[in-house]
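Dear all,

This email documents one entry for the complex benchmark we are building for the journal club exercise. For each entry we list the sequence lines for every component of the assembly. Then comes the predicted three-dimensional structure of the complex as a token string, followed by one or two observations. Please use this as the template for your own entries, and keep the labels exactly as they appear.
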Amino acid sequence: MPELPEVESLRRTLEAPLVGRRIVSVRVGEPRLRRRVEASFKDLVVGRTIESLSRRGKYLIFNLSDGGAIIAHLGMSGTLTHRHVDFDNRALAPRHDHVNLELDDGSRLVLNDPRRFGLMKFVAAGEVEQADEIRALGPEPFSREFDAGYLMLKARSRKTAIKNLLMDQKVVAGVGNIYASEILFRAGVRPARRCGRLKRAEVELIAAITPEVLAEAIDGRGTTFRSYRDSHGRPGSFGEQLKVYGREGQPCAVCSTPIRKRTVGQRSSFYCPRCQQ
DNA sequence: CTTACATCCTGATTGC
DNA sequence: TGCAATCAGGATGTAA
């Protein structure tokens, strides 16, 4: 579910309430997530203080006082919520609350994830960048490294569709199914176009537009298409600004041609047949 | 190395 | 209304 803008929005809303808080206890319900939550997770994080929150691609990173960190990923259906009050025992463990961190002010940070495609793990001091999940990631879309020349290099050698390239986390970190469609709409490029056949100008446009669209989505506190909520349980507002995603049959905002839906790389893709020739 | 595809799961929506 | 099929914002392991 969450792509870079949603994770960044979470990072921002969680920062104030969590920084400086010490983890006093941990409850792991169902440990079988995308990877099993290690039995040692509890002992490794209890007693440590959350010093800062960072993000890499779709991963949220809680930097701890010993230099270690907790790495979290929300998969398709995960949410991280900050809860101040447990009204009763039911509220303590709603369905699919898998990891529950109790903090020294009595509040809790809870990972809830019905489909269990998410991830939460402890990484020792100095090893965050070395962690398998993080090491495999391509550049951040806002970094200098991600520019037209870089994307051209990646696109040139590949046969796959441009939308698949944008969603490949090894190419650029953080773009998922919604924003890939939105970026390509704004760039005027069809999702199924083969990378190798794109003109230089098209690749340049895509490279420039990618951080723009993501930045605007962050400004809107992310997209709530179905289930995404921020740490307070509130939906993001960028969904209203989506031009193509989830809008099959609706008129294009630019030319009124009905938006089409098509499967590319086994994922739903949306585009305007007129604006994206 | 790249690419295609199945797979991990539950829940909401769609269609008959 | 009920029930089954389909689909879902992600990533990975396997095979070719």
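Observations: The two ends of chain A are 28 Å apart (CA to CA). Residues 217 and 241 of chain A are 9 Å apart (CA to CA).
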